[in-house]
Amino acid sequence: MLQLSALLTALLCGALQGAPPPPPPPPPIDGTWELTRIFRSGAARTWRAVPIDSSVYLRLTLKTMPGEWIDGRLYRRYHGREERGKIEAGPLRGTGRYIIGADLEYPVSQKARTAAWLIGDTLRLGTPFVPDADSLELRRVTTDAPYPTTVLEVVTGR
Description:
Blueprint: H1 2-16, E1 31-42, E2 46-51, E3 56-64, E4 70-78, E5 81-92, E6 97-104, E7 110-119, E8 122-125, E9 135-141, E10 150-157
Parallel strand pairs: 1-10
Antiparallel strand pairs: 1-3, 1-9, 2-10, 3-4, 4-5, 5-6, 6-7, 7-8, 8-9
């Protein structure tokens, strides 16, 4: 019993002296994300599957780097036109949200920035990556997952 007490005392003293904490788990935003739903406002509620070549499609790959900045790649199809670019992102401290930015070429060249937040295993984005959208919903996929043929467009009633 004395040995157990001495062991517990040694462990407790080590913890009080500033033993390093275990490394944090990988950030939940890391990975590959694919657009699944585009939300738009309209007169009547409805939804439909839209071919990705007649709409805008996104796939993001994100990786958190030391210092909490996020590096990544963007694959985007704007009505069939492919574009690839670099993503720069970072957390908005204390909010659980992120800012994601990328250079876009279509419909006009622009530096797009949007807010992003996680809801379970779903990533929600603001609007700049898809013109006329109210928000976007992306799901986690494997890096080598095949590209879908359609994306779901959801119209919410006003």
